[in-house]
Amino acid sequence: MLKAFLRATLVWALTAAILPALFLPISILSSSPAENAVKMAGGAVLIILAGSLAFALFSMLLLAIPVALLLRRAGRESEAAYRWSGAVIGFLLPLAIIALSRYGATPMMALIGGISGATAARSWWRHGRKAAVENGSQVGFTGTAAR
Question: 139 by DSSP, 3-state: which?
Answer without folding.
Answer: strand
